[in-house]
């Protein structure tokens, strides 16, 4: 049997897994991303893992899902703002030179989207938009089964489309970007602000904890949550009208065990979109959660090898 070693390289953790050519995950694990001397320590880490697995398994390739801006054709990291020393790393070349195995490298949000399309929430669908809600919003567009890359691998940045004119300042330098209203961080900040107005100091709270307060009908949590759903839906209405996708998948920690949240977005979205676009539920939660990137990395590598069995 052929096996693929997959890595999901993030700012905090490197997740890795062994998958067979049918996309069955044999095992998975994670380690802290090396912080010092990344240019040497990261390839060393990856090569060591692969070599250990080669003792017991027939490895036919390496699939990498990575944070940052990636040139997937060259397997190169174009830019990363959360891992010093990572920008410019020729990952595929370095690994190929040391292991003589085919390597694929793709951005983590794009990988996760393909993973969900292959083994997760939306199998069989070909027109999909994928979003992850977190500190910001990551997003990817798939049309006719293919990732939309744009002319310089920059397409699909839904998070930096403006939904409020002269709105909240964004890290990108503009004002009123979607992610300043619809990312998990916006929900958390709004809740803390609203509590402050009511004379209560909340130092830290997670999106999941706010969702719990919503189910307990906490009035401040409820009002902030309703605004959050509204903002998410305004952005998604633009997506629906622009691209007419079969599905929009929402990932990120906040969507785990949050069926009501996804349902509330679907309800609000249906109120917003033109009736002709209303073909049943459009928004789905991620099914693979944190593993989506590993499945997607495997899919991309198998596709590269023409070994995809679907
Ligand atoms: Zn922005």
TrEMBL record:
Taxonomic classification: Bacteria, Bacillati, Bacillota, Bacilli, Bacillales
Coiled-coil annotated residue ranges, if any: none
Pfam entry (one): ROK
Protein name per its UniProtKB record: ROK family protein
Origin superkingdom: Bacteria
Family: Belongs to the ROK (NagC/XylR) family.
InterPro entries: ATPase_NBD, ROK
């Amino acid at each position: 049997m052929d096996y693929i070693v997959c890595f999901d390289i993030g700012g905090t953790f490197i997740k890795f897994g062994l998958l067979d050519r049918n996309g069955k995950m044999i095992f998975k694990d994670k380690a802290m991303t090396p912080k010092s001397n990344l240019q040497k320590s990261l390839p060393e880490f990856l090569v060591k893992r692969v070599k250990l697995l080669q003792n017991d398994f027939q490895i036919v390739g390496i699939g990498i899902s990575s944070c940052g801006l990636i040139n997937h054709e060259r397997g190169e990291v174009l830019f990363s703002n959360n891992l010093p020393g990572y920008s410019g790393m020729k990952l595929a070349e370095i690994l190929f030179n040391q292991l003589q195995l085919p390597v694929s490298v793709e951005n983590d949000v794009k990988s996760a989207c393909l993973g969900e399309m292959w083994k997760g929430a939306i199998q069989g669908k070909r027109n999909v938009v994928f979003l992850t809600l977190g500190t910001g919003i990551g997003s990817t567009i798939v049309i006719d089964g293919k990732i939309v890359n744009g002319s310089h691998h920059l397409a699909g940045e839904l998070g930096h489309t403006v939904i409020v004119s002269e709105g909240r300042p964004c890290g990108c330098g503009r004002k009123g970007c979607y992610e300043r209203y619809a990312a998990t961080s916006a929900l958390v900040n709004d809740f803390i602000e609203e509590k402050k107005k009511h004379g209560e100091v909340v130092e830290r709270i997670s999106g999941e904890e706010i969702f719990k307060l919503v189910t307990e009908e906490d009035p401040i949590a409820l009002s902030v949550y309703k605004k959050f759903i509204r903002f998410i839906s305004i952005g998604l209405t633009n997506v629906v009208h622009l691209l007419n996708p079969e599905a929009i998948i929402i990932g990120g920690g906040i969507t785990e065990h949050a069926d009501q949240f996804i349902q509330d977005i679907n309800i609000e979205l249906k109120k917003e979109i033109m009736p002709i676009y209303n073909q049943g539920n459009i928004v789905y939660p991620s099914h693979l959660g944190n593993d989506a990137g590993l499945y997607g990395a495997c899919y991309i590598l198998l596709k590269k090898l023409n070994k995809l069995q679907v």
